[in-house]
C-alpha cells in the first residue's frame, strides 16, 4: 500500500516549479470534468434531451438568460445541460476505450513478446500497419462500419465509438508491452522462475506482468487527450453517437456551425470550451508524467545542503 | 570500417524502397478485409430501396460480390497494382476521377496550412526552448497546448462567428461560383489555375476563401512544431558539443545559432512526414467545417451515402500516399543525417 502511495506521489516529488504547477492544474481540471461526469444528473438543470419544463416548451436558440444560463440551441436543448452531460459521454467513451485497449493490447503484447516466432511477426506486421495509418481516418472507417453493424439506440453509439477509438490506440499498448516483455524475459529472475518449473502462464502473470504494466498509465493519459479530440471529431462528422442518445460536444458543435454566421455564439462556444479545457487538462497531466519519467527532460529541484560544523571541529 | 559495413546511401535507399511493397500489401489487406468482412452487403447498403431485387443482384454480379472472397481479394490487389482504385457505387464514377477532381483542393489547403504552421511554429519553438522556463516560454507552451487542444471545428466556429464578418472573409467553399465558372481548368487545382488565368479579381477571391481554412488547419499543426522544436532545443543545448563550443569561448549567440538550432531542426523534417497523417485527418474536419470541396469532404459524403466502393477506393489511395510519403521522408532524412543509414 505504501508503495502505491509512493508511486502516486512520485510525479509531485520529482518535479519542481513550473512542471509541478502544470501537473497540479491539469489534475484539477480533469477532476472537475470527472465530477461533472459522475454527478451530471444532479448538476445539470435539465436532461440532455429535454425540450420542455413544467409543460412549457423551451424557446429555440434563446440567448443566455436566467432560465437557460448558456441559452438553448436549434433543437430546443439547454446548452448548459448538454455541456455537463457531454462530460459524462466523453469520460464514458475514454474510460471504455482505454479498458478495451488494456484488455486487448497488454495480453497480446505479453504473448507476442514472450513466445516470439511467427505469431510475433504477424502481430507486429498488423499492428505496425494500423499504426502507420492516419489514425483519424481509421477511426472514421471503423465508426462507419460499427454504427452500421451495431443495433441503434441506447448505449450502442458509445460502444461503437469506444471500439473505433480502441482500434487506433491498441497498437501503442501492444508495442510498448511487447518490447518490454522481449527485454524482460531474458532477465535472471525469469530464468530462475523457469528453472523452478513455473509454467509459461505463471511466468507471464506473476513475473512479467508487473514489470510490463508500468508504462500503461502514461500511454493511457497521453491517449486520453487525443481520444477526446477524436471522439469530438467523429461526433462532428455525425458518426457514432446521435444527439438523442447522449450529449456529445462534437455533434453539438456541428449543429452550432450553421448558426455561427448569424451571430449565435452560445450554442458552439460552451461545448467547444469544454473540449479545449478537458484536453488541456489531460495534456498537462500527460506532459507532467512524461517529464518525470523521461530522464532527458527531467530537471530535479536542487536541494540546499546545509553543512553544520561538528562539535569536535571547533 | 568498409563502405558496405557502414551502409552506403544507394543501398539504404534500395532497401527502404523494397520495404514499401510488403508495407503496402499489409495495409491493403487490412483495408480489404475490414471493409469487406464487416458489413452484410455493400450493394444493398448503398443502393437498397433505390433499386429492385433483380437490379441489385445484377449490380452485385457486375461488381463481383457473388464470387469467393479470395478471388475478390486477388482482384482488388491486382487492380490496385494497375493503379485502378475501383468505382463508386452510388454515382458510378471512377475513384481516380474523384481524386483528380477533389484532390487539388485538399492539396492546396494542406500545403498552405503547412507553410503557415512552419512559419509560426518553428520560431516560437526556438524561442521557447532557448529561454526555458521564462515568461515567453510559458506563454508559448500554453499557446502550443491550446492550439493542439482546440478541435479544428471549434477554431473554425470561432473564426466564423467572430472574425469572418468584421474582416469580410468568406466562410464556405473555395471561391465564388463566378470565379469557378470563369477560370478555365488546366491543372484541376484552382489555386494554380487562377494564377494561370491572371485576373487579379479572381486571384483575390480564391486567396480570401483560403485564409480562414488554412489558418485553422495550420494552427493545429503549429502546436506540434512548437513542442517538437522546443524539446529538441532543450536536448541539444545540453549536449556535449554545445558545451564544448561554449568551453572554447564561443559567444553564446554563435553557439545557439550555429551549433544548437541547426541540429535541433533535423528531427523536424522527420516529423513533417509523420504529420502528414495528422494533416489528412485534420483536412477532413477542416473541409467539413468550411464546406471546402476536397477529398475529405467527399469521403464524408460517401460515408453518409454508405458507399463502400468509394470509401474503399479513397482509403486505399490515402494509405498508399502515406506509405510513399514516409518513404520520401526517410530518404531525405538519410541524405541529411548520415546516422540514419546505419
From TrEMBL, chain A:
Pfam families: BPD_transp_1, OppC_N. It is found in: Cell membrane. GO terms for cellular component: plasma membrane. Gene3D superfamilies: MetI-like. InterPro entries: BP-dependent_transpt_permease, MetI-like, MetI-like_sf, OppC_N. The chain crosses the membrane at residues 21-44, 93-115, 122-146, 152-170, 263-285. The keyword Disulfide bond does not apply. Keywords: Cell membrane, Membrane, Transmembrane, Transmembrane helix, Transport. Residues 87-286 form the ABC transmembrane type-1 domain. Signal peptide: none annotated. It is a multi-pass membrane protein. GO terms for biological process: transmembrane transport. It comes from the Bacteria. Belongs to the binding-protein-dependent transport system permease family. This is ABC transporter permease. It comes from Nocardioides humilatus.
Automatic annotation (TrEMBL), chain B:
GO terms for biological process: transmembrane transport. It is found in: Cell membrane. It is a multi-pass membrane protein. The chain crosses the membrane at residues 12-35, 105-126, 138-163, 210-229, 264-285, 314-336. GO terms for cellular component: plasma membrane. Residues 103-333 form the ABC transmembrane type-1 domain. InterPro entries: BPD_transp_1_N (IPR045621), MetI-like (IPR000515), MetI-like_sf (IPR035906). Gene3D superfamilies: MetI-like. Belongs to the binding-protein-dependent transport system permease family. This is ABC transporter permease.
Amino acid at each position: 500500500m505504501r508503495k502505491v502511495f509512493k508511486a502516486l506521489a512520485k510525479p509531485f516529488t520529482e518535479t519542481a516549479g513550473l512542471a509541478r504547477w502544470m501537473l497540479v492544474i491539469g489534475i484539477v481540471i480533469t477532476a472537475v470534468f470527472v465530477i461533472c461526469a459522475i454527478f451530471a444528473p444532479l448538476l445539470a438543470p435539465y436532461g440532455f434531451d429535454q425540450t420542455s419544463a413544467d409543460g412549457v416548451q423551451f424557446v429555440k436558440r434563446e440567448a443566455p438568460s436566467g432560465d437557460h444560463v448558456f441559452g438553448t440551441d436549434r433543437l430546443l436543448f439547454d446548452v448548459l445541460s448538454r455541456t455537463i452531460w457531454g462530460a459524462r459521454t466523453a469520460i464514458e467513451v475514454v474510460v471504455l476505450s482505454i479498458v478495451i485497449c488494456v484488455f486487448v493490447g497488454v495480453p497480446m503484447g505479453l504473448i507476442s513478446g514472450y513466445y516470439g516466432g511467427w505469431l510475433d511477426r504477424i502481430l507486429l506486421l498488423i499492428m505496425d500497419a494500423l499504426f502507420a495509418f492516419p489514425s483519424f481516418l481509421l477511426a472514421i472507417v471503423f465508426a462507419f462500419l460499427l454504427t452500421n453493424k451495431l443495433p441503434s439506440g441506447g448505449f450502442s453509439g458509445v460502444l461503437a465509438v469506444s471500439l473505433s477509438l480502441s482500434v487506433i490506440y491498441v497498437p501503442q499498448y501492444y508495442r510498448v508491452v511487447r518490447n518490454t516483455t522481449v527485454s524482460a524475459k531474458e532477465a535472471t529472475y525469469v530464468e530462475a522462475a523457469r528453472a523452478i518449473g513455473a509454467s509459461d502462464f505463471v511466468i507471464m502473470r506473476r513475473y512479467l506482468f508487473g514489470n510490463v504494466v508500468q508504462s500503461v498509465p502514461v500511454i493511457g493519459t497521453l491517449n486520453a487527450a487525443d481520444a477526446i479530440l477524436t471522439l469530438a471529431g467523429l461526433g462532428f462528422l455525425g458518426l457514432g453517437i446521435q444527439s438523442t442518445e447522449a450529449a456529445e460536444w462534437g455533434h453539438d458543435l456541428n449543429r452550432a456551425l450553421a448558426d455561427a454566421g448569424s451571430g449565435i455564439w452560445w450554442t458552439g462556444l460552451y461545448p467547444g470550451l469544454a473540449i479545449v479545457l478537458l484536453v488541456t487538462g489531460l495534456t498537462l497531466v500527460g506532459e507532467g508524467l512524461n517529464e518525470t519519467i523521461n530522464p532527458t527532460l527531467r530537471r530535479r529541484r536542487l536541494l540546499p545542503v546545509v553543512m553544520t560544523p561538528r562539535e569536535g571541529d571547533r | 570500417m568498409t563502405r558496405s559495413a557502414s551502409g552506403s546511401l544507394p543501398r539504404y535507399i534500395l532497401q527502404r524502397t523494397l520495404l514499401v511493397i510488403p508495407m503496402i500489401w499489409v495495409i491493403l489487406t487490412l483495408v480489404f478485409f475490414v471493409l469487406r468482412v464487416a458489413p452484410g452487403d455493400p450493394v444493398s447498403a448503398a443502393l437498397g430501396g433505390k433499386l429492385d431485387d433483380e437490379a441489385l443482384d445484377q449490380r452485385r454480379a457486375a461488381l463481383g460480390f457473388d464470387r469467393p472472397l479470395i478471388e475478390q481479394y486477388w482482384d482488388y490487389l491486382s487492380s490496385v497494382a494497375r493503379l485502378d482504385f475501383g468505382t463508386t457505387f452510388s454515382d458510378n464514377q471512377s475513384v481516380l476521377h474523384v481524386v483528380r477532381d477533389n484532390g487539388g483542393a485538399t492539396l492546396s489547403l494542406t500545403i498552405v496550412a503547412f507553410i503557415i504552421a512552419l512559419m509560426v511554429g518553428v520560431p516560437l519553438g526556438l524561442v521557447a526552448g532557448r529561454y526555458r522556463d521564462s515568461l515567453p516560454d510559458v506563454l508559448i507552451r500554453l499557446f502550443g497546448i491550446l492550439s493542439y487542444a482546440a478541435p479544428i471545428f471549434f477554431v473554425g466556429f470561432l473564426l466564423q462567428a467572430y472574425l469572418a464578418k468584421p474582416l469580410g472573409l468568406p466562410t464556405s467553399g473555395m471561391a465564388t461560383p463566378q470565379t469557378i465558372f470563369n477560370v478555365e481548368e488546366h491543372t484541376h487545382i484552382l489555386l494554380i489555375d487562377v494564377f494561370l488565368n491572371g485576373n487579379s479579381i479572381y486571384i483575390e477571391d480564391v486567396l480570401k476563401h483560403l485564409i480562414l481554412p488554412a489558418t485553422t488547419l495550420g494552427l493545429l499543426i503549429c502546436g506540434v512544431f512548437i513542442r517538437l522544436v522546443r524539446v529538441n532545443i532543450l536536448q541539444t543545448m545540453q549536449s556535449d558539443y554545445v558545451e564544448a563550443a561554449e568551453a572554447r569561448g564561443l559567444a553564446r549567440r554563435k553557439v545557439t545559432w550555429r551549433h544548437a538550432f541547426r541540429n535541433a531542426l533535423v528531427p523536424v523534417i522527420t516529423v513533417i512526414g509523420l504529420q502528414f497523417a495528422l494533416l489528412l485527418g485534420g483536412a477532413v474536419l477542416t473541409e467539413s467545417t468550411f464546406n471546402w470541396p476536397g477529398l475529405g469532404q467527399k469521403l464524408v459524403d460517401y460515408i453518409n451515402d454508405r458507399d463502400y466502393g468509394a470509401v474503399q477506393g479513397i482509403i486505399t489511395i490515402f494509405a498508399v500516399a502515406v506509405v510513399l510519403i514516409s518513404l520520401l521522408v526517410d530518404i531525405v532524412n538519410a541524405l541529411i543525417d548520415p546516422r540514419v543509414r546505419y
